[in-house]
Design a protein that fits this description.
Length: 336
């Protein structure tokens, strides 16, 4: 399993000079929230602050800092504009774009855009209006800093803390739908675990997905943390029933879903109430078929897309009712 934290470490180790581009403040409607960040090296990018011209502007400024921080023409230019609050940084006009950056794709900065620069950081205060080709209507302050060893360590520590608190999604079954669902969920801010009784069914899973081979998959339900989501879609209906029953008897789950038809759900209900000592209240928490039945398309990729949206909605709703003490803020430790 290649975690997202490891991907961050790999990127930080991939270049000798890297800039952190972070959303430091927002007003009104904006593409990303405060604390969203990306890393920019001379040749690559890690993460996003929302895309569009705002991101191109930030990348361009970051690469100018990476190639020639306060050298030559930049340091010689007279100051102009407005100083950022609480700083003595000089504002400079847009600097010549170094080789390999994005000047050809950039629009004019537009009225109201402010750029503050010093040796190791820059601040962009950008109105998201038609002048830059974005019509969100809000305003974004972007902080750009060169990454030193201390900041790199902070980034990794924050990512580790965030990853430790990611919601858990357990996918039981690595068949066609299981593979598609794991690939879709791997793109989301969750920790996905695929559980199987067949070793060959775990082959080809995304690198960021954890896999477990076990003869007793129901034990994974008992050991899962509170607030987890369970998607049950094994190759065996009897095994599905056993796993679903274990999940429904937990009162702290965010989502319990089972693949199948209305007939399968009715058969499960009859078994659950009569043979598994289940209750109607517990059964009512079951989502089946996963992904709903509005879209009449049984292709694995379609089911996976619908189920992933359903699972993510359930996780967000469940987490919204949790204590704020258990939340990891998006801002982490980097703003400032």
């Amino acid at each position: 399993m290649n975690s997202k934290v490891q991907s961050l470490r790999d990127f930080l180790a991939s270049a000798d000079r890297i800039a952190l581009v972070e959303v430091a403040g927002t007003k009104g409607s904006t593409p990303r929230e405060k604390g969203a960040f990306m890393l920019v090296s001379r040749a690559a990018i890690f993460g996003t602050i929302g895309g569009g011209q705002l991101e191109y502007m930030a990348i361009d400024k970051a690469r100018q800092m990476l190639f020639s921080p306060l050298e030559g023409e930049m340091s010689a230019k007279p100051t102009e504009g407005v100083l950022s609050e609480g700083t003595a940084r000089a504002l400079s006009p847009v600097d010549p774009t170094p080789p390999g950056s994005f000047a050809a794709t950039l629009p004019s900065r537009g009225r109201g855009t402010r750029i503050a620069v010093d040796e190791v950081r820059a601040t962009l205060d950008v109105p998201l209006g038609p002048e830059i080709g974005q019509c969100c209507g809000g305003r974004v302050e972007v902080l750009i800093r060169l990454v030193d060893a201390a900041l790199a360590a902070d980034l990794v520590a924050a990512a580790e803390a965030e990853e430790a608190h990611l919601p858990r999604v357990y996918v039981f079954g690595g068949g066609h739908v299981g593979q598609a669902l794991a690939s879709t969920i791997a793109l989301l801010p969750v920790h996905c675990v695929v559980i199987e009784t067949r070793a060959e069914a775990l082959e080809g899973m995304p690198e960021t997905v954890e896999t477990r081979l076990t003869a007793m998959p129901e034990a994974m339900v008992r050991n899962a943390p509170a607030g987890a989501a369970f998607a049950i879609l094994t190759h065996d209906h009897a095994l599905d029933f056993l796993i679903v029953a274990e999940a429904l008897k937990r009162g702290d789950t965010a989502y319990v879903g089972m693949i199948g038809s209305k007939t399968k759900k009715a058969t499960f209900r009859n078994w659950f109430l009569k043979s598994a000592a289940g209750s109607e209240a517990e059964f009512a928490r079951l989502v089946s078929p996963i992904g709903g039945d509005t879209v009449k398309d049984k292709r694995p990729q379609v089911i996976a897309a619908l189920a992933a949206a359903e699972i993510m909605t359930a996780l967000v709703s469940h987490n919204a009712t949790s204590s704020a003490d258990h939340q990891i803020p998006h801002g982490r430790v980097m703003a400032g």
